[in-house]
Amino acid sequence: MAFKHGAIIVRNGKQISSGYNKRVSRPFYCRGGDFSIHAEMDVINKVSDFALLRDAELYVVRVLLNDENEIIKINSSYPCHACRTKLMKVVRKYGLKRIFYMSHEDSRVD
C-alpha cells in the first residue's frame, strides 16, 4: 500500500489541469539522482497559459491505495514549505483564487 497525492485546478467549473506526485531522474550531467515533484507543482507546471490561473481554485488530496491502485482511504494533506512558498507566489502573480487541502476536518488552507 502507498500514499499518493493528486491535484487539480478548476476554473469556472471546468478542470484546466491535473497532476500528481512523481519521482523523476536528473540526467547524469546534472549530477544525477532522483527527486520528487509534488502534486501542487506538477499541476501548475502543466497549465498551458498562466492567465488561466486567475480566479481558479487548486484542490489537493492524499489517498491510500492498495496493491490494485484502488482508493482505501482519503487522508489529511498539507503543503511542504517549498510548495507553500511557491503557491503564495502563484497567488500573488497569477491570481489563483483559493487553495484547498483535504483534511479530516474538511477545512481550507489559503
Characteristic terms for this protein:
two-stranded antiparallel sheet; alpha+beta; five-stranded mixed beta sheet; disordered C terminus; globular; 2 helices; 110 residues; 7 strands; Cytidine Deaminase, domain 2
Which percent band covers the strand fraction? Answer: 35-45%
Mean pLDDT: 85
| CATH class membership | Alpha Beta
What CATH calls the topology is Cytidine Deaminase, domain 2
Order of helices and strands: EEEEHEEHE
* Helical content band: 10-25%
Any idea how many domains?
1
Distance between the termini: 30 Å
**Rg computed from alpha carbons, rounded to a whole number of angstroms:** 15 Å
Give the count of helical stretches: 2
Which secondary-structure class do the elements indicate? alpha+beta
Major β-sheet profile: 5 strands, mixed
Give unreliable regions as ranges: 106-110
Can you put this structure into words, describing what you see?
- This protein is 19% helix and 39% strand.
- With 110 residues, the chain is of the alpha+beta class.
- It has one domain: Cytidine Deaminase, domain 2, CATH 3.40.140.
- Strands 1, 2, 5, 6 and 7 form a 5-stranded mixed sheet that branches. A two-stranded antiparallel ribbon has the order 3-4.
- A hairpin with an 8-residue loop joins strand 3 (22-25) and strand 4.
- Mean pLDDT is 85; it is low at 106-110.
Helix/strand layout:
Elements: E1 2-11, E2 14-20, E3 22-25, E4 34-37, H1 39-45, E5 57-65, E6 71-75, H2 81-94, E7 98-101
TL;DR of this structure?
The chain has 110 residues and is an alpha+beta fold.
